[in-house]
Structure formats: structure tokens, C-alpha cells
Amino acid sequence: SPLLRAAQTADIFxxxxxFKGDIAATESLLVGTYPSEILNELKTRxxxxxxxxxxxxxxxxxxxxxxxxxxxxxxxxxxxxxLLVETESLERGKGRLLWTKGPEKIK
Length: 107
Fold this sequence. Notes:
Blueprint: H1 4-16, H2 35-43, H3 59-68, H4 72-75, E1 82-86, E2 96-101, H5 103-106
Antiparallel strand pairs: 1-2
């Protein structure tokens, strides 16, 4: 997300993970956009094998629901949470939620 707190979170994770690549902000993660927009944008990035997405609720929950097919109400994404989704295809319902961690488990 291009919003300040999401960018700060991306920087924190980049430092923790010793990530030296580019951090990209995208308006396709702004609240009110369709989840398919971020998936379509990710599809344009050649050679992409993994991605860390930072954003805000409820939009992150909506995107995870779209990718996994899990009902948003069952995801219970809390503020400051991390979710790990695995997928072979950036298509609706093709992802698999591997875990969800609340902020107390991240530190």
C-alpha cells in the first residue's frame, strides 16, 4: 500500500529479512480497489516467486479471502497480523492459507 504505515511496515520487514531488493508501493492495495487488481499487478512482475504485502484492514482480509476462497468473516484478521498464503497461481480461490499470526507472535 502507498499509505505511510504500510510503507513503514514493509521497511521493518525488509530490514528483518535482510531484503535488498526494491520495495514497490501500489495503489491497487488501497481500500476500495478490487482484489483482482493486486493479483493482476503481481502477474506483470516476471520471475516473482514470493511477495510480502503490507496494507490495511479490511482490504487485506478481502484480498486474502479472494485469493483463498475463505469467507472474510472466518479469517478474523486482526490489526498488526501476518498471514501466509501459498499459491501456484494468482487466480481467485487458488491460494491456501498456511497460517495467521497476531502481533504478539510476530515479535
